[in-house]
Amino acid sequence: MDKKIMVVDDDKEFLEELRETLTLSGYDLVAVNDATMVLGLVSSVKPDVILLDLKMPLKSGFQVADELRHFSEVSHIPIIAMSAFLKDDYAALLNICGIKRCLRKPFHPLDVIAQIEEVLSERRTYGRS
Known about the structure:
The chain has about 130 residues and is of the alpha/beta class. It has one domain (about 5-125): Response regulator (Rossmann fold), CATH 3.40.50.2300. The chain has 5 helices and 5 strands. The protein has helices at about 10-25, 40-45, 60-70, 90-95, 110-125, and strands at about 5-10, 30, 50-55, 80-85, 100-105. It has a 5-stranded parallel sheet with strand order 2-1-3-4-5, with helices on both faces. The longest helix is centred in the C-terminal third of the chain and has 17 residues, at about 110-125. The chain starts with a strand and ends with a helix. The mean pLDDT is about 90.
């Protein structure tokens, strides 16, 4: 498979749990626990999908997604947001930032795998692999 997933979350314990799930599912995982580092890393990492926590210190997931959307080299990378604090008014913000999918924490490991597979399938369908 060898698909690279970048996971951005300030919760190190959560990152480790997700690392185990994704690694066992055949993904190459790059974990980032500081949202301010994402823009600097994403060009060299070249992930196929980004899993992005929305609520982090220093910089929110919304801010990170918006920065990535405006950086043409990486703007095509699908972002799956993750949050335990989803509110109804987040839908508009998610759309503005270019985030098409969102998982509510806590989620089942199979749910995150299914979301990743769906966005990878969509990328293949629309010519970006």
